[in-house]
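User: I'm curious whether this sequence folds into something compact or stays loose and floppy. Could you predict its structure so I can see for myself?
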Amino acid sequence: MRTVGDGTRTLNFLIDTAIIFALAYFSFKGWNWYVKFWGYPYYHFGWFFFGILFVYYFLFESIFSRTPGKWFTYSKVVGLDGKRASVPAVLVRSLARLTIIDLFFIPLLGKPLHDHLSRTRLVEV
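Assistant: Here's the prediction. I'll summarize afterward.
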């Protein structure tokens, strides 16, 4: 199995972030309707974005080992042994994505922080 390059990772990121942003935006707007007309408590957009980001990556990667962005680029998440990533590893991976500094570790480690902490890698299918 070949590990994917930075270009594939970037394309995965752009596709998945566009989907996550659209889901978060429409959830935020729907919630704000309830805030305006029913008096629900107001939450900032970040709560919707980061909440959906976590759930999106956790569900897709734990069930399918892939997200829509990874399906598009023919890549998937595996453990260091090349087998399917475990659910705890995917949980750590999803939590690490919530940090802003996640991608800044590529020059230092050769991979993002979420791959390093969860002991997973992204490979070609």
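Summary: Strands lie at 75-79, 120-124. The chain is about 60% helix and 10% strand.
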